[in-house]
């Protein structure tokens, strides 16, 4: 009787371990597929809809110059359910708008892009208030297109040039992180 009990307990433990090994094997295979999709930056080729692979695809589209497709993909990811991917997508979307605004020059064409960038950075900060990169970029966007009540209604505002001058402290960066 005791021998049968020991064998049954051993068989149950072996089945539990086999199930754990199978589960982790499936997870490892899925992670390998996601890593391959990220490395190729083409989630559609592997049939994977993992947010990480789609984020890598959007970044690859942005780097290749297809910013319209990248914006579309970033917006889809920003509406997703995973908070970490949503935050990264919003941050990258804000950076994309900032780069477009800087490329637009000093005209009025850059103002809508700066507003979109500011909104993206605010959305990131709403979810992750201690994201210092988003805070810095929001400050840069506010510096390029300040928001003030007087300027919104058309009254003259004194230009505080001393407050708007970039710091002369050594090591200060003026670009996006």
Task: Write up what this structure looks like.
By secondary structure, the chain is an all-alpha fold. Helices cover 74% and strands 0% of the residues. The chain has helices at 2-40, 43-46, 51-64, 67-78, 83-104, 110-127, 132-144, 149-153, 161-164.
Largest sheet, in brief, is: none
Count of individual helical segments: 9
User: Roughly how much helix do the residues carry, as a percent range?
Assistant: over 70%
- Spell out the helices and strands N to C: HHHHHHHHH
Ends apart, CA distance between termini: 70 Å
Strand content: under 5%
What is the C-alpha radius of gyration, as a whole number of Å? 25 Å
* Number of E strands: 0
Helix/sheet category:
mainly alpha
The coarse silhouette is: elongated
The low-pLDDT segments are none
Taking all residues together, what is the mean pLDDT?
81
Layout: helices, strands, pairs:
Elements: H1 2-40, H2 43-46, H3 51-64, H4 67-78, H5 83-104, H6 110-127, H7 132-144, H8 149-153, H9 161-164
Helix pairs in contact: 1-3, 3-4, 3-5, 4-5, 5-6, 6-7
Primary descriptors:
177 residues; mainly alpha
Short description:
This protein has helices at residues 2-40, 43-46, 51-64, 67-78, 83-104, 110-127, 132-144, 149-153, 161-164.
